[in-house]
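Please annotate the following for my students:
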Amino acid sequence: MPGELVSPETTLAIIAGASRFPKSPNLASGAPFRDSANDFSGYLTSEEGFALPEANLLNLFDCEKGPADVIEQIEQFLETRQAQLEGTGGARDMIFYYVGHGGFASDQSYFLALHGTKEGTEGPTSLRVVDLASVIKRHAGTMRRFLILDCCFAAKAYQEFQSGPLAAARVQTLEALPSVGTTLLCSSGSRMVSLAPQAAKHTMFSGALLKLLLEGIPTVNRPLSMAMLGEQVRLRIRKEYPEEAVRPEVLSPDQREDDLKDVPLFPNAAVRRRNFDCIITINDEENLAIEYLGHTGKHERLAGALGQDPFATLAVQRLNEWVNIGVKLQQEKAWKGNPCSPDDLKIIGVNLFRILFCDPRIRQVFEDLFERFTVKYQAEKAANGASDLKMRLRLTFHRHADEISRLPWEFLYVPGPADAKHGFFFAGERTELILTRYVVPSMTIGDPKPEPLRILVAIYTPTGERGITETEEKALITRLKTLTPHVVVIRDESWQKLSAKLATEKPHIFHFVGYGRFDERGKSGGIALVRTPEDEDGLYDPSEGQKPVLPLVGADLLSLFDYEPKPRLMFLHACQTSSANSAEAFRSQEAFKSCAHDLVFEKIPAVIAMQYSMSNNELVEFAMSMYGELAKGRGLDEAVKAGRLKLGSFFLPKWGHPRFGTPLVFLRNDDPLVLPPPEEHGAGETQKGEGRADLTTGSVAALPSRGRAGEASAPAPPASEEPAKQKSPLIG
């Protein structure tokens, strides 16, 4: 269950807290509390938000009942609703949201304030965390639990507890909750009080959280996890309030349980515009299925058949080989003619289209989806002069479809309605169309962090090979360092040193420059290292300067990556061979392709090789365009598209050469490798050396009201705050 996506139909949500505390005059009250709960509730149940069924929500905000009745209502809700959902898969997840105040009772137990919380007897009149945890353990013990606690230790009476009790609150809460399957998003750090900006409807934390939930993160291609929300809220607050920034944090009771904080939880509003994504899953050599959003916006799936036209498959395979030979001959300048024409590529592409869309029902779905996309895209361009709308065609291959997955799908050609010759390459020059190749199952990885790319470049030149020249190497490294300062280069090192360097540097990208090799049986492809004095076989002769080939294939190749986190991307940069035998050059290229295929199925989320020969200059141009987009926080699919556009338009003849489809990309995950580092500000966001965020210090949490025009005034600051400073008042 940890890896399963969160579904609104199997999620239960509880909202608690209060906007007024009539029996506790030292607790700040105000509309921000009420608006927070109302807006979060609206977000959860809105079709544009989380789309939670109304029956799956228990809203106890501003409930005037005592803590015992509140606990009983939570207990009844969890018990009853789980029983009702049992026949449809059951309830798998729980979201608990609290907004208000947190504090300590006379016995130092941590509590969440309710409407009836009474000053002096806070313990028995508030919702004690230990009691909340107890009911969760009993009635949601098998569910994944996501808690958002937006409360602060703000009452004037508790101001002397600015250190010890704050840490104690964290400990009490974490120890009380189930240790496995629980994660919490808390609103500020243990040494920072939470603030409400003057005249703002929401506090710092609430405003940032709401904007993220309602706007999403454009650079992330999947739903938002608790870990990503916590990090992005922090960055947004830091940018908007550099002098007063507070630090939210995600906490887990069991630090060994790291999966839950990375589970995609809330829909990413920024990718809702990706409603023209089309996923075609090829299950084996005969069957496929297409998944898409229909006219009503609902997810639909249709099973169909893959084309079984032997002539079409043969035409693709033989022409593909012919184009490869032609490209190689052209690069060697051994042939003065045109090795391949655009018509050759179109014949490959049209036959690929016939194989993929043989089933008329599947073809009709694709054509209807493309027509809807085209109409909306052109309308946006006409209205705004441009459109960032994209249509993505994702080809997903299971292991049983291994042979069909090896066809050159990058040249898929969509024929025109009247004339097949006047269509377009889906992965070609049209920037609004993106084609990507995936393998199943997908790979879950941690959320990208705001940091520079880390790239490890490994250069290997076995004896007898041309390799990359010193000038080419210098140009590559110099250009990489314009993108990131974290570029590490190793040359002709032993297998042991390469393995150790990878484990130490933990690069996002492993850029291998060299040659591919097969094993002795000619079946398993890998990379060509060299034997050095450190190698056990002792075949290296330093007096001769020999560097015999050491093929690293199979289990030995996979063992290079026996550490975490592994590279997110491996780029196989094929050097031109010095061999006069072109067959050897093709074997090196085929070994890289085989290696890429095996690595992505076993270890690495994304691997890129070349299905045709490319010059070093072309490889560098593609890599730099792609890496540049990755450094900006783009997903791999968009970054690869940028590289294809560079290849297709930079070199002549534009889009008449197979360069744009040469990069062979295997993906199991297309999320960004990193997020852009935050802008630095003169003022610090927190005290230097501040520790982890605390549950008791949090601003009023909220999500923006839908359709509310009025702005709520911020709560008045406690008496201890100096009004003359004109800073944001404390919430608690």
